[in-house]
Amino acid sequence: MEGILRANNYRIVKHTDGPDVYIVNTCTVTARSDYQSRQLIRKAVKSGARVIATGCYAQLRPDELIKIKGIDLVIGNSGKDDIVDYLHNLSGSGGRRSVIVGPPGSPLKAKPYFSGRSRAFLKIQDGCNSSCSYCTVPMARGRSRSLYPADVLKVVDGLVTDGYREVVLTGIHIGGYGLDLQPESSLLDIVDKMADSYPGIRIRLSSMEPQELKEDFLGFILKFIKEGRVCRHLHIPLQSGSDRILKTMNRGYNTGYFKQLIHRILSECPDISIGTDVIAGFPGETVKDFDDTVKLIEELPFSYLHVFPFSKRPETKAALSPDQVRGNVKKERVNRLIEIGKNKKNAYMARNLNAILNVIVENKNTTAGFYNVISDNYLRLLVRADRLQPGQQIQVRVSSLTDAGLIAETLGQPAKPLK
Questions:
Q1: Same domain, 281 and 398
Q2: β-pair partners for 125
Q3: Sheet of 202-205, strand order
Q4: CA proximity to 359, closest of 231, 245, 271
Q5: Looking at residue 65, which CATH number applies to its domain?
Q6: pTM to 2 decimals?
Q7: What confidence category does residue 202 fall into, taking pLDDT thresholds of 50, 70 and 90?
Q8: Is residue 115 part of a domain?
Q9: pLDDT at 419
Q10: Is the pLDDT of residue 130 over 70?
Q11: Element (H, E) at 394
Q12: Does 105 fall in a domain?
């Protein structure tokens, strides 16, 4: 949305700069994100500005948001493409509050992109055809749909022109990219075209579902990684280490498949960073189920964990389960998994001591003489240097691991090309 607004001569300001309009892009993945979205809206209303709410919470439960006193407009996910029209009409609304929420699933379009980050995030796919028992994404985003390859390359061309040196391909199910298109395409096809057309950029893949990484498909992904076409980083959600809970979640795989998948990846790319998601306290999760999850996570060399307590989402099967786990038990299990995640992260950082890494500069650190950088294998480091620029690609040698994180020294030369 920011790219669309800037392209139409709207000025984006900080909340402290007295904006005329707030646009709150809500999230509804957990009850906490619902709460945070409502708090942001109320804070915006108190400023005296006009307030628009959009996003997944607005899509699924607009009736809850429109009840917030002072909000002007609630629009669904499909309305984001028309945000400029809504802004034009806002001044003539006469103070009337409106809800405009249509069915999710509008076709993806190439849009202007802007971000203050040194890396660009390009949504190539949206929506979901799965039916996990705890998730509302299919209801909020609609069925899977993809951005046409020509549009992807058009956007990437603009990103390269604007100076971005890493493009993160994002979506709900990027492993299913292109399967809905005519003619059909694939993630492998679009990565191959991007790497051939723009050899100077890093391509990073966002989260990919385990069942999407079948034998032949995975083989090509690993080939791209070994060739330097794709970053040495994969994020593959586990969610639970209990086969019984995975079945209740309707995840479509078991722990045996997941273990084989991770071991296959590591056998070909031993230095790769693999992250995962885990839900603690899913309905019916027993002590044994949780212990199985802990055992599996400790066995596999993840480089980081994203840990979530189970959160009841309206209109999902899991929310209706009578076998809910007590809040204090969920909290204990979350804390234990977070601690394991910290140990995993520290172990992976330690493995990279003395390694030479290709990094992209993000910004200056608050500590004088240091810059924040991110490596192709998803490590954030502090680099000693004088005059680096955001977006610059360089090579560094990891010299130490401190309480502040990994410290690295520049090698005084540009990063080796990714192809």
A1: no
A2: 146
A3: 120-123, 166-170, 202-205
A4: 231
A5: 3.40.50.280
A6: 0.93
A7: very high
A8: no
A9: 37
A10: yes
A11: strand 393-402
A12: no
